[in-house]
Protein: Oxidoreductase
Organism: Domibacillus enclensis
Amino acid sequence: MSIIRWGVLGCAGIAKRAVIPGIQQSETGEVKAIASRGIEKATKTAAEMNIEKAYGSYEELLADPEIDAVYIPLPNHLHKEWTIRAAEAGKHVLCEKPAALNAEETAEMNEACRQAGVVFAEAFMYRYHPRYEMMKQVIQSGEIGEVRSLHGTFTFNNAKDTGNVRYRKDWGGGSLYDVGVYPISAARLLLGEEPAAATVQALFSPDHDDVDMMASGVLEFSNGVALTFQCGMWAFFENELRIIGTTGRIDVPSAFVTNENEQDHFFVTTENGRKEVEVPLLNQYALQADVIGRSIRTGDPLPFNGEDAELNMRVLDACLASARNKQRIELEEA
């Protein structure tokens, strides 16, 4: 299998801290080029990250015939434009979450990639780690009985950094966009279905351009099952998931962001006691790059494709509408 040659549009922290090293550690990919809005920043980042090429504009990178795929870690309001432009340039796309500002934009991106015959994936790295398949196997085995509810929390406190792009309303800022998408997507993945309705209470901060700095919500699934979740950018750090069944539960202490040098096991508790389920120490960003790389080369379908990104954004649209309007929103309404 030939190596996938990646280009990166932007020098965002998540790219430098996690995604670029993940691609570099993958079996299928290499980071060939990086672009910024100025050549100085691109050159500096390329030198720091051992990347061969640096470009002073995104257009230049997309014009490079040696680039097969691009990773887009730009602010949320730019995802649609540069995904479509990348597709039109014949590049496969890994776009940082959330895919866009709403489901309508995501559908346009997905269609552009379909028309161009390129792969389009949303960057939820945690889904590629075998932990989640292992959790699904525990659920399907009946060890914890019937699933009754899920609870997810992803919070951190960055409120003092008022110039952060996360606090620009018109750029798609807010905690639901930034971290709420994780427990939402996890519930959809583990339950294998879409929620029927959303109810969300949020703290909108005038000191942070009126974005939601904290949100607590309920997603209604079938058979009375619900996801309750908290997400926030002005709260103590938590990164946890709990799945409660009729005869047991699963606890995931590091549900989304894993510890780089530690194995993030999960725990199953039943009437027989509490046991630790050991999972392999793997780089979930490298796993993400490999699954996408193999899909690019073989044409095999992605486990999480553009349609999944659209469905996730529909739920997020409903959550945002509920928080703003202070009412329960059915997904058909969103």
The chain has nine helices and 15 strands.
